[in-house]
Write a structure and sequence with these properties.
about 400 residues; alpha/beta; 4-stranded mixed beta sheet
């Protein structure tokens, strides 16, 4: 994530150290919240590490963290617990926006937009009452991609996470709900559950899975063109392997679109919730921009208002350029368009540079610390804080 802070008017001269002034009213101080490949609802990659270890920590045959070295890491790294698949889907499964999201995903699997039946169905669906809360997402009859191995159509590419539990071990299903996730880790985790209990209790009591509205405009960027696990299937008890000192991997996986770490369901679930709340004019709700990186559909400026102050005024979907997109006439499986590469993708960073240049000022921000600094003071601050710039 990163925030765009509204800058004070250039005429402001007074200085203040009051950090409380920054946080007093976030909607006045924060112009935009931008998330990049954020795991809003967790990732099965964390669960895979908790159950079978992660051989990526081994270099060659000898150097790195072997399975025994990873046991205490699973027990003591709260971030791994935080990234486990969350129960967000179960919290909101009866909400109209969540039902519509799942229904659209099911229709995508049933009706091929390239077939005559599919074209007819999607033409009728787009203008129907069924397509009420996802009007901001383009129809599958429109084209979003060229040259990738995935479908060129504009599609959600998600699974129903209520019907797709996070894990199946020896035919026993474990959903994302608190009880199932606790049971799964208690029985099969690399770590000792009496140690993990503390972190699991904190996770289950936190408000993070509720995806509470941030109360500021949000842009959610995600990659979508890789198969990404949403369910791990083990034909045998993973502890029968890890207790012997070896890593183990799922025998099979249920996949959806994603970036190989975060499935599409995470960013699109959060976006759908917040977009719905804005449409319903709920207190504090602000518009959402969904940025599908490497898509060429509706490329352009993030801002809806270009005269003077640039602002975001409504929910919408946008394609965003990327350097890992194949050149016209060429094909690629998007091998370099991965979770970890978005933050250094040249095309995406150029887009962000234009977003940051918003000309936005906060007329009420008249007492900010930086506003009254001289050039000499600002240069001194840059020199002293070079390690974080």
């Amino acid at each position: 994530f990163f925030l765009m802070i509204r800058r004070p008017p250039r005429s402001t001269q007074s200085r203040s150290s009051a950090a409380s002034d920054v946080y007093k009213r976030q909607d006045e101080k924060i112009a935009l919240l931008i998330s990049m490949a954020a795991p809003f609802t967790g990732s099965t990659k964390a669960l895979r590490s908790a159950l079978g270890g992660n051989p990526d920590f081994i270099h060659g045959s000898y150097f790195g963290l072997h399975i025994e070295g990873q046991r205490p890491m699973v027990e003591t790294h709260s971030v791994l617990v935080d990234l486990l698949p969350s129960f967000s889907f179960h919290l909101y499964e009866s909400e109209p926006w969540a039902r519509e999201l799942v229904r659209r995903a099911e229709y995508e699997k049933k009706y091929d937009p390239g077939s005559e039946e599919g074209k007819s169905f999607w033409s009728n669906y787009t203008n129907s009452e069924e397509n009420n809360h996802l009007k901001w997402f383009p129809s599958p009859t429109e084209k979003c991609f060229e040259g990738f191995g995935r479908s060129s159509s504009c599609m959600l590419l998600i699974n129903d996470m209520i019907k797709t539990p996070s894990a199946m071990i020896n035919t026993q299903m474990f959903s994302n709900e608190v009880r199932d996730m606790n049971a799964l880790l208690r029985i099969y985790s690399l770590g000792k559950m009496d140690v993990l209990d503390h972190y699991m209790k904190e996770r289950n009591e936190s408000r993070v899975p509720w995806l509470e509205n941030p109360g500021v405009p949000v842009a959610i960027a995600y990659y979508s063109h890789h198969n990404t696990a949403t369910q791990l299937i083990y034909d045998r008890d993973p502890k029968s392997v890890t207790d012997g000192g070896a890593f183990t991997s799922p025998d099979r996986e249920v996949v959806s679109g994603g970036d190989r770490v975060v499935p599409n369901s995470g960013p699109l679930f959060a976006a759908s919730k917040w977009a719905y709340e804005f449409d319903q004019k709920l207190p504090g709700a602000k518009p959402v921009k969904v940025l599908e990186v490497c898509s060429h559909h509706n490329e352009g400026s993030l801002y809806d208002q270009q005269d003077g102050r640039k602002t975001i005024q409504y929910n919408s979907y946008m394609g965003v350029p990327c350097s890992c997109r194949p050149a016209p006439g060429q094909h690629s499986d998007g091998e370099f368009c991965l979770h970890a590469t978005m933050v250094r993708d040249g095309g995406f960073l150029q887009f962000l540079g234009k977003v940051v240049d918003s000309n936005d000022k906060n007329p009420t921000f008249t007492n900010a610390g930086f506003a009254g600094m001289t050039n000499e003071q600002l240069n001194d601050l840059v020199w002293r804080c070079a390690h974080i710039l």
